[in-house]
Amino acid sequence: MNTVKPESIALFCLTPGGVALAKRLAAMLPVTCFTSEKLLEEGFLPFENGFANCAREAFASYSALIFIGATGIAVRVLAPLVNDKFSDPAVVVIDERGQHVISLLSGHAGGANALTRYLAGMLGADPVITTATDVNEMAALDTLAFQLDARMNDLRAAVKIVNQMLVSGQRVGLWWDAELDEEVRRCDRRGFITVADLERLPELDALICVTLRSELPTIPLRHWKLVPQRVVAGIGCRRDTPFPLLAALLARQLAAQRYDPLALKAIGSVSLKKDEPGLVQLASCWRVPFETFTADALREHEHRFPVSPFVRKTVGTGSVSGPAAWLLSHGKLSGETLREQGVTITLGVAH
């Protein structure tokens, strides 16, 4: 799976051969091509303040970087910027003859391995991938997490342990909620042992549980919970509702429906609330997007929910939390709406 956004790929070339190859690639996928002033052609952008500076700026603003040239050049330019494989962009290097495509940085989380295979397939080149799980033709926990858009407490530590177990031949099980079956089956699960029933575990050294649940039954071996972000929350509130109250009520609503807090995917409300301090802080604290909808968009679905004349007079629609959750989840609502202290919260599940 290519986790890189195609529209955010920056490509750098330093030679006439590199420019020729860049033109081939640009005809096959959307990339922003950079080169020097003397090699500039239509469709290319010049290096601003030199190649190194341009590449370093792109490192902070693009999802992926492709260098056509020597691997050493890319390493020397980017070395001071490399931080974390969960946040660094994908970096791929291609020789100017298009014979080898090398996954250099952020192979799993950044999508460099997937991008490498994709580019190699387009060019008829050899993909060069050195991550241990890929070399051993196995899946990886971080790849699974990103394919499922899932979170885990201390994912970095778990990835290190679980991936090492996989390449060492240890038995790592994989269990998932029935409601996630279609999504998980589409993921790369090579090397994991499928577990159908938590009450009847095969012989395992560790277990990954893919679930939205806040609690699991007692599991008598080392295990980790991988939580896909699927739960959305439509929220309506009075002006200047304090953040602590919103946070407490949202946590309570999630707990009431037995959702793990890590499962929260987005918070939604009416456009009038786009700058509401408590809601903005709530989304920031939970590290999820805050999406707003026009009153007209919400009003199309207000007939499905209890309507308040006061709310309609104030914001232009008679219901906020229900319609917002409906739109965020494509109609897959979950449980009853919480109504307390001028706050309404409706949950949904967006698969």
Automatic annotation (TrEMBL):
Q: Does the keyword Hydrolase apply?
A: yes
Q: Where is the CobE/GbiG C-terminal domain?
A: 231-347
For this protein, the Enzyme Commission number is 3.7.1.12
Q: Which UniProt keywords apply?
A: Hydrolase
Transmembrane ranges, per UniProt, are none
Q: List GO molecular-function terms, semicolon-separated.
A: cobalt-precorrin-5A acetaldehyde-lyase activity
| Residue span, Cobalamin biosynthesis central region domain | 140-217
Residues covered by the Cobalamin synthesis G N-terminal domain: 55-134
User: What single Pfam family name could you report for this chain, choosing any that match?
Assistant: CbiG_C
Using the UniProt record, name the top-level EC class of this enzyme in a single word. hydrolase
BP terms from Gene Ontology = cobalamin biosynthetic process
Under the heading NCBIfam families, the entry gives: PRK05788.1-1
Which PANTHER family does UniProt cross-reference here? COBALT-PRECORRIN-5A HYDROLASE
Recorded protein name is Cobalt-precorrin 5A hydrolase
